[in-house]
């Protein structure tokens, strides 16, 4: 039987210190509801971005809007896989992710923003359903990912905070400037 998502943020000992920048961006309350609300907000924000604008880079060498969205998708899949594996009792350490290597093989700019947003919506909805089905024991379970101990609760917050971080950058550096 599933339990409601924890209403409190994870403790500092539930994740690696470098994830604090993401966890700190997540509001107090039900993290699964935050994930569901973020989806609607992000789709509304990016749904009106033209394909020309989706290729915008605010600086040479920076990712395009499409690449940022693709990165959010890739990272969410990896964090959610870690959460699923740990929730199910996986004892083996889970590997890290080099975002630059992933980006080099992704070719997100060959796709439309609409296609990427559709993929993001499917990934996020699937993860919301996965997290809603967890019981209290699964939420508290600990495992190792990227050479650090982490809880399922922390991973849900990292997903939400990672998206919030990148959506903030999209608002500030991509969508508020002429390009």
Describe this entry's structure for a reader:
The structure is a single chain. The chain has one domain: Up-down Bundle (Four Helix Bundle (Hemerythrin (Met), subunit A)), CATH 1.20.120.450. It is globular and about 45 Å long. The chain is built from 8 helices and 2 strands. The protein has a two-stranded antiparallel ribbon. The protein has helices spanning about 20-25, 30-45, 50-55, 65-85, 100-105, 115-130, 135-140, 150-175, and strands spanning about 140-145, 150. β1 (about 140-145) and β2 form a beta hairpin.
Give the beta-strand count: 2
Backbone structural class: mainly alpha
Distance between the termini: 51 Å
Computed Rg: 16 Å
What CATH architecture label applies? Up-down Bundle
Given the structure, what is the number of helices? Answer: 8
Strand content: under 5%
Strand order of the largest sheet: 1-2
Shape label:
globular
Q: What does the secondary structure layout of this molecule look like, with pairings?
A:
Elements: H1 20-23, H2 31-46, H3 51-54, H4 65-87, H5 99-104, H6 113-132, H7 136-140, E1 142-145, E2 148-151, H8 152-174
Antiparallel strand pairs: 1-2
Helix pairs in contact: 2-6, 2-8, 4-6, 4-8
């Amino acid at each position: 039987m599933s339990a409601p998502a924890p209403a409190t943020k994870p403790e500092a000992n539930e994740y690696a210190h470098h994830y604090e920048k993401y966890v700190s961006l997540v509001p107090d309350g039900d993290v699964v509801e935050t994930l569901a609300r973020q989806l609607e907000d992000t789709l509304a924000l990016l749904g009106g971005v033209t394909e020309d604008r989706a290729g915008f880079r605010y600086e040479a060498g920076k990712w395009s809007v499409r690449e940022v969205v693709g990165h959010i998708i890739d990272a969410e899949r990896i964090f959610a896989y870690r959460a699923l594996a740990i929730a199910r009792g996986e004892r083996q350490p889970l590997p890290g992710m080099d975002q630059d290597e992933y980006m080099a093989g992704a070719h997100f700019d060959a796709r439309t923003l609409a296609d990427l947003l559709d993929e993001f919506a499917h990934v996020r909805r699937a993860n919301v359903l996965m997290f809603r089905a967890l019981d209290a024991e699964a939420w508290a379970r600990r495992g190792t990912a990227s050479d650090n101990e982490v809880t399922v609760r922390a991973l849900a917050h990292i997903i939400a905070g990672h998206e919030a971080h990148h959506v903030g950058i999209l608002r500030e550096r991509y969508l508020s400037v002429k390009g």
